[in-house]
Amino acid sequence: MADEPDIVVFEGGELVLPRRLRGRREAVLAMPLDRLLAKIARVPASEAADPVAFVQDDMKAMSPVPDDPLAVTCETLSETPDHSTVLAVALPESSAEDVAAKLDEAKINVTRIDAAVFGYVRAKWDEIFNGRDGGARLLLAGEESSIAAIAFDGRVPCAIRAISRGGDEEMRRDTMLFLMEAESSCGMGPLVETVTAGDVPAAAVPEGAGVRALGGDMECALDGVAARSMEVGTANALPGSWREVLEETRFKSKMKKCLAAAGAAWLACVAALVAVPWWISRETSRYETLRAQHRPQYRKVSEKKSQVEAVREVSNHDLGALETLRAVVSCLPEGVELSKWNFKRGERLTFGGTVEDGDRQKVYDFKDALDGVRLSAISGDDDDSETRFFTSVALPNGVTLRNRKAAFNVECSFAAQEEDY
Amino acid sequence: MARSLREQAVLAALGAAALFGLTGAYWAIKAKPQWADARKKLENVKRGYEREADMISQREEWEERYVEEASQIPVVDGAQGADTMWMRVIGEVAKANNVFVKELKPGKIEPMGDMDSVKVDVKWDGALESLVKFMHALESSDEGKFDVFALSLNQTKKQGYLSGSMTLTCIFKR
Asked: Which pLDDT score, from 0 to 100, does residue A227 have?
């Protein structure tokens, strides 16, 4: 459901804010009828597509400054196959400068302009007719400097005029003229009833028909204006230049919001550029401090561990010199003699030898056999069955023949021994 | 010349885009690599801390293991010079297994908490079988915790006779 608009009233030359604007600076302006140009016209069906063009000239003729551009708005009151009854409303810009000045002073942007009396009629519609639809009826609504007069033929408004408050004779004459105009323009019959609202002098009330006073005040008129502003097809007398100002103001407001959002996003990015490295640095310092605090304890445990490992290295002979010798000798083929040996625990083994009959294949078989030695063969632990005793076995110089003997050198490296902790 | 609203909006949008672009460029060129380095450093420090904390949590286990291992380490009379003792033991075992020790050279005694470690360099001659028995006897000796740290040997002119050197590691408690 759309938000109900704020309403401001222009009355007695001043802007009245009947209800506090709810933080917004946009509002609907309710004007007295005598500040607007208003006419009810019968538009033939052939002109019904563009009623504004039909009434434009008549409205300009009504304007105090006919040469001024006039934004005429139309509202269809009733339709028949032959014609439409249309309410045409306009606000001459040059005669609304005082209103514009008051609005600028209050920093209010107007989204719609309506007549307060239209709101009153909307709010009091059923009460105006009081269950009686037929006949001609005159509504006289008292405003600050005039009396809004609306003639109804049945339930259809057929004429509208603002009667100036003046002398009694003047008002009586204006009312008569108005009724005659209504009779001639829309064929309104004899007056059945006059309905008054607000302060209506007796001189303005025509004689001969019943008079009924309606209650209601500004509040119900404003409710009616608010209801009309939310309906489609109701008249909006907002001048063209005021509409442009409104759009411009809205655009500027959007732009400010976008720039503010972009500014906030940019500041957030900058904040992240500052905050992230700060946080990382803070966390790093925190961990460094924690490490410094527990370092003495860590050193003690680390030393203890080193001592245990040192003892175990000396105690665990699985990859020791004797076991390495045993592993190599277990693979030694017939006719192969070892002539030199160089072993360093946990690092490397290099040895050299000769084959009596010069058979190179024996060397290759010997190398393959060394590759296949598993730690479990030495340690006796089945868990070591997949672990190679030597991580690599190589013949760096190949096999050379010398004095009908095949000479070779082998280089082996050891895996880091896993501790069974 | 006063700019129209639309022009102002376009300029503002371009300005905002330029500001974001510059900020993005700064981040991509300077800040991002700095962040990556800083994060890497933090991860290293954090990992180190966690590793050390884990080690500290195992303190009791390592104490127990140490006690268990240390119980197997021989105790040397504090009044005795440790190097001469090991030289004597090595010499006796060599003699018992027909290995001729040409030279015995003890290294510096290295403290390891409440234990000590010493490396002894040995130059020897002997048959392969004698050498194997000698090494086995040392490794199974009750008088010391020995390990053959390095071993090198070569054939001599005498058939079946080898010559070489070895480095023995010995751990003990006083």
From this structure: 93
The answer to whether B115 contacts chain A (CB < 8 Å) is: yes
Pairwise CA distance, residues B121 & B169, whole Å: 9
Q: Which of B167, B138, B171, B128 is nearest to B150 (CA)?
A: B167
User: Using the beta-carbon criterion (under 8 Å), do A317 and B164 form an inter-chain contact?
Assistant: no
Separation between Cα atoms, residue B161 and residue B167, nearest integer Å: 20
Amino acid B82: pLDDT: 65
ipTM greater than 0.90:
no
Q: Is A81 helix (H, G, I), strand (E, B) or coil?
A: coil
- Cα distance between residue A63 and residue A57, in whole Å: 10
Q: How far apart are the first and last CA of chain B?
A: 99
End-to-end CA distance of chain A: 74
The tokens describing B127, both together, are 């048959």
Confidence of residue B76 (pLDDT cuts 50, 70, 90): confident
Cβ <8 Å between A273 and B117: no
Burial category of A308 from C-beta neighbours within 10 Å (exposed 0-12, middle 13-18, buried 19 and up): buried
**Contacts of residue B55 in chain A, CB cutoff 8 Å?**
298, 301-302, 305
Model-level pTM? 0.59
Q: What's the Cα-to-Cα distance from B33 to each of A285, B30, B40, rounded to whole Å?
A: 20, 6, 10
Tens-digit pLDDT profile for residues A42-53 = 999 998 899 999
On the question of pLDDT at B88 being above 50, the answer is yes
Contact assessment for residue A358 and residue A401, using Cβ atoms and an 8 Å cutoff: yes
Distance separating alpha carbons of residues A299 and A279, to the nearest angstrom? 29
Phi, psi of A397 (to 5 degrees): -110, 10
Note the pLDDT of residue A31: 93
pLDDT tens-digit series, residues A99-150: 999 999 888 999 999 999 999 999 999 999 888 878 899 999 999 889 999 9
SS (H, E, C) chain B: CCCCHHHHHHHHHHHHHHHHHHHHHHHHHHHHHHHHHHHHHHHHHHHHHHHHHHHHHCHHHHHHHHHHHHCCCCECCCCCCHHHHHHHHHHHHHHHCCCEEEEEEECCCEEECCEEEEEEEEEEEEEHHHHHHHHHHHHCCCCCEEEEEEEEEEECCCCCEEEEEEEEEEEEEC
Given this model, what pLDDT does residue B128 score? Answer: 85
pLDDT digits (tens, 9 = 90+) for A211-239: 999 887 778 899 999 999 999 999 999 99
Q: Which of B147, B149, B57, B72 is nearest to B115 (CA)?
A: B72
Average confidence score pLDDT of chain A: 89
Alpha-carbon distance B73 to B63, whole Å?
15
Q: How confident is the model at residue B78 (pLDDT cuts 50, 70, 90)?
A: low
List pLDDT tens digits, range B31-75. 999 999 999 999 999 999 999 999 999 999 999 998 888 888 888
- Partner residues linked to A245 by β-bridges: none
Q: Which residues of A touch B16 (CB under 8 A)?
A: 259, 262, 266
Stretch 332-371 of chain A: residues touching chain B, C-beta under 8 Å: 339-345
Element spanning A250, H or E: helix A240-315
